[in-house]
């Protein structure tokens, strides 16, 4: 485990270099000084030098070497170009929170470019290497300002060894990608497999020596266009038969397991304000929030039960909002040569924003994608097979199981007890994972792998939990929360809210008529969904008959007859 250096362990020049890099997207370079006397460190529009101390510029250049040894800087894409590592970013935050140090001996040469608005250039205070600017924020500071979780920020690998992948696998991945596209530049291939150009350049040299690829032209910035030779096409066909995967390079299973531990919901303990914000778009009584709060904070799973139509699913789907909003997940995982496609657009929502683009400038590993914490919902279609890896015998690529996709989020088993599988079989399948937070899955080659089981399991059911599971399982799901029928007052609030939203006029006496004539008189229980559904009936009736959007007693009668006649019993 790498230990972040303490600010006081760095000398003045080393601290100055870290600060100036952090204020300029983490990048710097060593360039010739304008006075032709040696070299100086430059970051963006600033060069570090001191007219009163001729050794200062040289010391800053030497500081770059020291910071590389301390793993706070790394080499960049060009000659004499460098960038902060994740450890360097973390140290820069410590430096900015330090109390002000008196250091009057350093001045900075401002190199103003006519193409850069002067308001975007950081201003220099008397305290050396300390800037104030609303335009230039470090990606790490931006993460913090936006409330994004930086507990796990995988650093982009700079060597093949750091990827955890072997050369043969990456070479085959490159050949399959070129085969699909026809011809690509090195930069385009780098973008598709999400690895740095510097990593794949050596592999291209090897592929050319083996006459698998050939150069067919030049591209911008010294890049080349690559195409498969006949031998390369044959090797690509063989590689595709072995495994058809041709997306972003996968991450090792151990790296994924570490990411789950760093981003698990169990490290968060949401309080009342978080719950109120998460449920602000629906009407939830304070008593219900009081029940949900401890269950969500514990993160150990829950039963949400009660009669149908009262919002159990709606409540369950909002629970994930109570935790940190975003996490990083891999596009794919590799273990023992087997590929598991992880990212699933049907349940993983990417976070696409200017913030995520800026975060990438802090050298984040592009094999990971930032998403909202997942809420995976499965209902009657749930089978035992969906709890295992889904092996495709043609592509030889596996799909992640439901519980794997839901790690660091929530897994909602909706309408539990009405699945195709016996509830007891499902509960028995999860007794050990719920206890140990570890699950075991089988790869296509038969190997058993250990994976994290770190999500909030929510069972939503119309049945009593005691009718579905034995005591041994119920002990492992410690919270059982009943979502009962609404009170008359709550139903009135819901009806008024939906009427306002639908722009339907409904006076209090008409609402009283509805409840007394169609609920009280026939002992029909109130349901939260009835307010929305009956008003939908009113709206459609008025639209069809070209009537004002007004809920009269006659139209309410019509809505009730349409809605309840075909429904069983009094529901």
Automatic annotation (TrEMBL):
Residues 100-119 are annotated as: Disordered. Residues 100-111 have a biased composition (Basic and acidic residues). SUPFAM superfamilies: P-loop containing nucleoside triphosphate hydrolases. Residues 298-487 form the AAA+ ATPase domain. This is AAA+ ATPase domain-containing protein. It comes from Bythopirellula polymerisocia. The lineage of its organism: Bacteria, Pseudomonadati, Planctomycetota, Planctomycetia, Pirellulales.
């Amino acid at each position: 485990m790498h230990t972040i250096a303490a600010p006081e362990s760095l000398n003045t020049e080393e601290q100055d270099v870290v600060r100036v890099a952090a204020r300029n997207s983490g990048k710097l370079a060593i360039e010739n000084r304008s006075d032709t006397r040696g070299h100086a460190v430059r970051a963006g529009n600033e060069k570090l030098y001191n007219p009163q101390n001729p050794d200062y510029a040289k010391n800053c250049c030497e500081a770059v070497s020291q910071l590389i040894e301390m793993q706070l800087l790394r080499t960049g894409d060009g000659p004499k170009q460098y960038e902060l590592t994740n450890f360097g970013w973390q140290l820069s935050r410590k430096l900015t929170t330090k109390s002000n140090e008196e250091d009057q001996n350093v001045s900075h040469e401002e190199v103003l470019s006519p193409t850069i608005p002067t308001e975007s250039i950081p201003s220099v205070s008397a305290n050396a290497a300390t800037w104030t600017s609303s335009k230039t924020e470090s990606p790490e500071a931006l993460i913090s300002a936006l409330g994004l979780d930086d507990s796990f920020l995988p650093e982009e690998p700079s060597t093949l060894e750091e990827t955890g992948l072997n050369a043969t696998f990456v070479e085959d991945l490159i050949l399959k990608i070129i085969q699909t596209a026809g011809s690509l530049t090195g930069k385009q291939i780098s973008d598709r497999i999400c690895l740095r150009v510097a990593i794949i350049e050596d592999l291209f040299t090897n592929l050319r020596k083996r006459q698998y690829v050939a150069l067919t032209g030049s591209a911008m910035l010294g890049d080349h266009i690559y195409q498969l030779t006949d031998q390369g096409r044959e090797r690509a066909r063989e590689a595709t038969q072995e495994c058809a995967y041709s997306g972003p390079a996968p991450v090792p299973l151990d790296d994924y397991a570490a990411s789950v531990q760093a981003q698990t919901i169990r490290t968060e303990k949401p309080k009342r304000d978080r719950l109120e914000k998460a449920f602000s778009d629906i009407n939830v009584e304070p008593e219900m929030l009081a029940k949900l709060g401890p269950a969500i904070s514990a993160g150990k799973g829950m039963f949400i039960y009660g009669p149908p139509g009262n919002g159990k699913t709606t409540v369950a789907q909002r629970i994930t909002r109570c935790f940190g909003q975003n996490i990083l997940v891999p596009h794919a995982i590799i273990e023992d040569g087997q590929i598991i496609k992880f990212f699933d657009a049907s349940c993983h929502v990417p976070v696409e924003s200017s913030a995520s683009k800026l975060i990438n400038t802090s050298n984040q590993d592009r094999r990971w994608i930032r998403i909202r914490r997942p809420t995976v919902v499965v209902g009657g279609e749930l089978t035992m097979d969906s709890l295992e890896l889904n092996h495709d015998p043609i592509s030889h690529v596996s799909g992640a199981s439901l519980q794997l996709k839901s790690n660091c989020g929530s897994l909602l088993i909706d309408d539990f007890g009405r699945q195709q599988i016996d509830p007891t079989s499902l509960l028995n399948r999860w007794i050990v994972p719920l206890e140990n937070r570890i699950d075991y899955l089988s790869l296509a080659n038969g190997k058993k792998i250990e994976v994290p089981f770190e999500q909030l399991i929510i069972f939503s059911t119309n049945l009593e939990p005691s009718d579905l599971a034995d005591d041994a399982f119920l002990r492992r799901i410690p919270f059982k929360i009943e979502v009962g029928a609404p009170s008359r007052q709550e139903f009135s609030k819901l009806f008024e809210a939906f009427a306002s939203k639908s722009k339907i006029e409904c006076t209090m006496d008409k609402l009283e008529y509805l409840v007394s004539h169609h609920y009280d008189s026939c002992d029909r229980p109130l349901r939260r969904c009835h307010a929305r559904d009956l008003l939908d009936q009113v709206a459609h009736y008025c639209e069809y008959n070209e009537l004002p959007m007004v809920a009269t007693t006659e139209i309410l009668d019509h809505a009730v007859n349409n809605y309840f006649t075909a429904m069983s019993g009094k529901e």
